[in-house]
Hints:
Elements: H1 9-17, H2 70-78, H3 82-95, H4 100-112, H5 116-129, H6 134-146, H7 150-163, H8 168-180, H9 184-197, H10 202-214, H11 218-231, H12 236-248, H13 252-265, H14 270-279
Amino acid sequence: xxxxxxxxxxxxxxxxxxxxxxxxxxxxxxxxxxxxxxxxxxxxxxxxxxxxxxxxxxxxxxxxxxxxxxxxxxxxxxxxxxxxxxxxxxxxxxxxxxxxxxxxxxxxxxxxxxxxxxxxxxxxxxxxxxxxxxxxxxxxxxxxxxxxxxxxxxxxxxxxxxxxxxxxxxxxxxxxxxxxxxxxxxxxxxxxxxxxxxxxxxxxxxxxxxxxxxxxxxxxxxxxxxxxxxxxxxxxxxxxxxxxxxxxxxxxxxxxxxxxxxxxxxxxxxxxxxxxxxxxxxxxxxxxxxxxxxxxxx
Length: 298
């Protein structure tokens, strides 16, 4: 058997290249994940133009105005009928322009339908009605992150933190945004604060673990990713990222098991397949036992 210290750095770089994503489900019950763009279409398209007997095209009556209650709009949103929800909330805010929640739901519906520009506009309108509407600040920041306007996102999240300093979601998003801006220390502090506020915030643990991996601090990533796996063993990304941390600290057989667990959670997970195929062929000597300091993940 070759000593594990003889494994080349190329293998470790390949492991990181096959790492999992950081924010596949960076949400809480009151927040939404990044939408998949869809084609928008009129909610009530006009009927086919009738043709008069003399061959002239008759005028088509205007499509009826979409109306509905707030509850109707919420029902359409929950049913993922986002274009219907847009039409209902568009009508609702026209009737009640001073209702911040109406603008907020219009924004969410537009974002889900793939119209981030309209979503941003509607979130800003909600905030003009109620500048302390934290949900609008939080979800507007997600739109801005998606559009790579990180400084604008940080400004909104900082305002949200001032209004609701106990929100783990706000600090998790601050960590994500600072990380995207290359502000590692600020990102680490924000993620740690999120975990302090919510000891079960597995996505902050995962994201901070990945940040440590990106900055060559695998030993610091281990307890965070181990805790994320412990709390949510059904998420293949967590197992895969944990495997990368194990591999980077020379625990190849433990990494092999972690990649296998990722594939148990999702047999189609390509990154875990690649990592497992690579590490299976790595020869190593005795491995250092994994002793995770759970306090380090808090």
